[in-house]
Design brief:
45% helix; four-stranded parallel sheet; alpha/beta; globular; TIM Barrel; adenosine deaminase activity
Length: 371
């Protein structure tokens, strides 16, 4: 499927960009416009590897396409460096929302780790307030442009530091003031959710929802810990749940699959998988199955009834958008409008919102796809 210069594509004659979409797994520090990195970098004296915006965008994409999550994460040194002031955080958050709205997203959750943005003297609370100011400015700008969007914060703790309980309390403190959920990010392998059990127990006692990065750089034990220790309501990526599936036989298009207990639990409880196709390729998350998008177990999981959702992970690093991710899946697996609608309905059902607001999203998606 050809993707035009604006990143759009057609399915059944319909613009994917114009379809209403939900974004659940989208990192703030992975979604900066290269031009913004250049401008803010100049202001703080940051030594950039490439001085112009187009060249910098290409450089970040190439560095990210290494097949290693560790190498992939190093590109964030640039983006976080320009997000250490109130002004920088507010601008990046505003542009984040504007870019989502331009891509047809009607609800999004932005995940970011406040502890990584206090190097310029901001407190954790001031950093969250700065991001919330930017989100609201972006929502207002989208409304003036005739687009409706709402974005909530997923306050994130870095799994390899010792501040998870502090960040969990920060997230709960901002409930009703922008924060809708909690996440842990950073190096997954070797840092299971069980290390942060006290934070997750606190969040559970406060009935505050969590999504946990699991099943990306580590396998089934990481997913199990996310569910048991992290009380996760969604799995950040979760692609390696497919390791708990055994294809017993194939007969034409018919595939007989045997479920492990963990996979059956995730499928039967409709725990959303925050799959990010391009990112999963870049970080080597699907290397067990291959190195091409067609090797991704996305379609297997979808056909087996898992609650799959489509996400970008890091728009800048993957040089992508939600429209582009959907177009790539259509091209690879021959999905139609009904399939794309199913992905959005899964995401709406998994959003960290009250049930009434999730039902409103579901109605908006159904109406948008009907039109």
């Amino acid at each position: 499927m050809p993707i035009d210069q604006n990143g759009d594509a057609l399915v059944e004659g319909v613009s994917i960009r114009r379809l209403p979409k939900i974004s659940l797994h989208d990192h703030l520090d992975g979604a900066l416009r290269p031009a913004t990195i250049v401008e803010l970098g100049d202001a703080v004296g940051l030594d950039l590897p490439v001085a112009d915006a187009d060249g910098l965008g290409t450089w970040i994409g190439e560095q990210s396409d290494s097949g290693s999550l560790v190498e992939y994460l190093k590109t964030f040194d640039l983006t976080t460096a320009v997000m250490q002031t109130r002004e920088g955080l507010t601008r990046v958050a505003r542009e984040f929302v504007e870019d989502l709205a331009e891509d047809g997203v009607i609800y999004g959750e932005v995940r970011w780790a406040p502890e990584q943005h206090v190097g310029g003297g901001l407190s954790l609370e001031e950093a969250v307030e700065a991001v919330q100011d930017g989100i609201e400015e972006g929502e207002d700008a989208a409304e003036r442009a005739g687009r409706d969007i709402r974005v909530g914060q997923l306050i994130t703790a870095m799994r390899h530091t010792d501040r998870s309980l502090e960040i969990a309390k920060l997230a709960v403190a901002f409930r009703g003031r922008g924060a809708v959920g909690f996440d842990i990010a950073g190096p997954e392998d070797g840092f299971p959710p069980s290390r942060l059990r006290d934070a997750f127990e606190y969040l559970a006692s406060e009935f505050f929802p969590t999504t946990v990065h699991a099943g990306e750089a580590a396998g089934l034990d990481s997913i199990r810990s996310a569910l048991v220790d992290g009380r996760a309501l969604r799995l950040g990526h979760g692609v390696r749940i497919a390791e708990d599936l055994e294809v017993v036989s194939r007969a034409g298009e018919e595939v007989l699959v045997q479920f492990g207990d963990l996979a059956r639990w995730v499928r039967d409880r409709e725990i959303p998988l925050e799959l990010s196709p391009s990112s999963n390729l870049q970080t080597g998350a699907i290397e067990r199955w291959g190195t091409e998008l067609g090797d991704h177990p996305f379609d297997l999981l979808y056909q087996l009834g898992f609650a799959v959702t489509v996400n970008v992970d890091n728009r800048t690093m993957s040089r992508t958008s939600l429209t582009r991710e959907l177009a790539l899946l259509v091209e690879t697996f021959e999905y139609d409008l009904a399939d794309l609608e199913a992905f959005q309905l899964n995401a709406a059902a998994g959003a960290f919102l009250p049930v009434e607001e999730r039902e409103e999203l579901i109605e908006l998606i159904a109406d948008g796809f009907d039109r």
